[in-house]
Amino acid sequence: MARLIRTEKEVEGRYTEQWVVVEEDVLEQWPEGPLQTVGRPATRVDGLARARGEARYTQDLRLPGMLHAAVLRSPHARARVTRLDLEPAMAMAGIRGVIGPSDLEPLTNEPNYEGEAVAAVAADTVAQARAAVEAIDVEWEVLEPLLDAEQALAQKSFVTNPRDYERGDVERGLAEADAVVEAEYRTQSVLHNALETHQSACEWEGDTLVVYTSTQFLWGVRDEVAKAFQLPKDKVRVICRFMGGGFGAKGSAGDYTMIAAELAKRTGRPVHCRLDRREENVNSGNRNPTIQKLRLGARSDGTLTAIDAEYECLLGWDGWLPPTAGPAQMLYACENVRTVERGVRLNTPPMDAFRAPGFVEGTFGLECALDELAAKLDLDPLEVRRRNHADHDPMDERPFSAKELMECYRRAEPHWERRHEVRARSEGPVQRGVGLATQLWYGGGGPPSYAWVRLGGDGTVTVVTAMQDIGTGTRTAMAQIAAEELGIPLERVTVELGDTAHGPYAVVSGGSSTTPSMGPAVRSAAADVGRQLIEIAAQRFETEERVLRLENGKIVSDLGGSWAIEDITGLLEDGQILGNGARGPNPTGMRVLTFGIQVAEVAVDMETGEVVVERIYAVHDVGRVINPLGAESQIEGGIIQAIGHTLSEKRLLDPQTGKVLTRTLDSYKLPTFADVPEIVAELVDKPDAHLTNLGSKGLGEPPIVPTAAAIVNAIRDATGADVREIPVDRETMLRALAEAREREKRGAPAAV
Amino acid sequence: MVNGGLHEVDVPVGTTLADALRDVLGLTGTKIACGEGHCGACTVQLDGVPVLSCITLVHTVGEREVTTIEGLREHPLVQAFVEADATQCGFCTPGQIVSAAALLAATPRPGHDEIVHAMSGNLCRCGTYPKIERAIEAVAAENRGG
Lengths: 752, 146
Description:
The complex is a heterodimer of chains A (752) and B (146). Chain A is of the alpha+beta class and 752 residues long. Helices cover 28% and strands 25% of the residues of chain A. A seven-stranded mixed β-sheet of chain A has the order 5-6-3-13-10-11-12. Chain A is globular. The termini of chain A are far apart. The mean pLDDT of chain B is 96. In chain B, a hairpin with a 2-residue loop joins β1 (43-46) and β2. Chain B has a three-stranded antiparallel β-sheet, with helices on one face. Chain B has helices spanning 17-24, 76-84, 93-106, 112-119, 129-145; strands spanning 43-46, 49-52, 66-67. The relative contact order of chain B is 0.16. In chain B, α2 crosses α5 (129-145). The chains are: A alpha+beta (752), B mainly alpha (146). At the A-B interface, α1 and α17 of A face α2, α3, α4 and α5 of B.
């Protein structure tokens, strides 16, 4: 029976209480370990479509009569439009529609960051649209932008109210400490740079607006667009079957969707609005920079007595305050913790979620400071982490639904032991070292999420749900889950996703939530089909339901005998067996988190400042693993992205004008093939016994969380230099080395 | 010549090969990710040599042989990429396979350094590089066997 419950919902550390209707989840979890299909490596069900270039992305759409949009964006960080004449654009060849600030909500006369949209045109070709934007007659009054964090703090320029947290008494804790580390850490702005840029094509079909879009959240786009155009929600249909990467920045509709929809309305034709790479690097979100002031105290045995942390999160003009203090609050069993997070508003492009927002930044500062503290106390960094292990949620004493962090530490031990051998391989100017850092993140998912499963007369199974696969392999994981539940080979399962008109509601692909939210719903829908199949088989073969089970594509009787599934479904000819599934609630009174540790080995050239990551070992606890092959790819991908923000990636702003200087993929340095170290990835793969009928958590974000701190701790191990900002480019590295030499000359101890 | 078939393309001067392939011939397997020759997503082969089709003007192609991912669908690398899980979002994948096919044609058994050198112009934001290397090595191993 359906139950109405009030439950806690978490997306990327943002908790809300909400009502959900859930079905009784009668399914017991499967036993631990690899099963028939779940827990075994599977190649992607859509791998061939992608590799053969057949997968149709939003960029590949060619709708009949489709027009192309281009957008006039502010070239200034802060300005006022004093004159705007759209006439010259309208007069140009191929132009079918032009809109300005009075026509559509996101268009503005008073841009507050570079790239904010002012006007847009639709034309027969992209070239015509761009030429028309150039022809728009616009005059700007350039205003002084607010770019300096100190000044913004003094003016109390915040996007949201500061967030304070306190337990115990940090000053007392610091007074009790045998050693204290007080230091400032900085992280940079990182640009997502998914290879498919943000884009949508919109088409009106009668009173229904069809939105083809590159998105991580079909239903979120539906709701936003419906609200903006005052439509009933299901009069907006959102489609995204293949998606060229998001990493957090494609969770909402974006100005390009609104522009395409409005121009489509005015022209009566489909309109495609696609950001080019330079727009993408200015106007599609970013990981916000942080300035972190930390004070950590510990007793001589390594027990943490205090964590005091202030985070200035430079969000830009808009956005939300990511849980940057999360690691400081939750990672260790420290009694005295105080955190302050301030979301600073500046005239820079708004931040957006970027793979584990807040935790990537917060873990960097905390885990580096902890190593500096361990060095002061002359303790083994891994032992310090074990000593401060939190057996329950240190914020509110809640038990964890499952926590295998100690097992992760145990498995990391031999890789950490390699440090002696690695250091010994230092030679000449190249010094080698090893560092580690712990990972903590959410990833439990939650309701509401639904799936349908249908079993056809030929015995093939189709999973239907309006979720998205943003490249993480969730389409394959859902097929595995349905195959497992029905005891059929993976090849017999098709997954239909990516269309709000063709399937039930599904969760955002963000916050590592797709698999833990959708997987249980898919299993429950498949189980519904399985129950009906057994009921039908029992009648057909005049036996009892309780002696029948599904195995290897057959209905098997405990009394002997088996029948192929098609023997039953074949009876129905075109009839189908339809199953419904819903995601149940998360366990009440428990904290659901993911854990892990990474060990980095680096080589630092003391003369040139070049840092090379040579090896990373990663072990993570995300509950049951559905597809070990895809999971390994997620870990490798997260680590490689993290190597980017640790060593080379940085959005540069002109300090005078606030303009983004790194707008291209040659000025903004993504990791290449040549930057990849040896990566050894492991998963604990133990189902979370309290979490859903699957016991699985998400893996999209955990691997990117601890890498920067592990690398920087390895750099300290190799060189003795305290690096407290990322990226560690050569200038940063050489400066830190010079400071370390200076300190040594003065005879001061390491880590102040 | 595109993938073995002769095509006459009538487009304005200044049209890129990538746009001609995608918009005129409907070969959308070739992706455009930066549009200015920095990322490799648009890689096609011109007479077997990998080039960036987003900064190659179609009028300079003449009668040379263009090979796109659509012309390489039966290449063993395609299956090898699937087997090795060398695609995540898949947007860079066609370009990766076109580059890797050119590498293997020139160097049937490339070593690690040769793979890195040949593939460093193809960016992958999802970080599939280790799996791509595994896929290339798998096909190279077949070459060794054959």
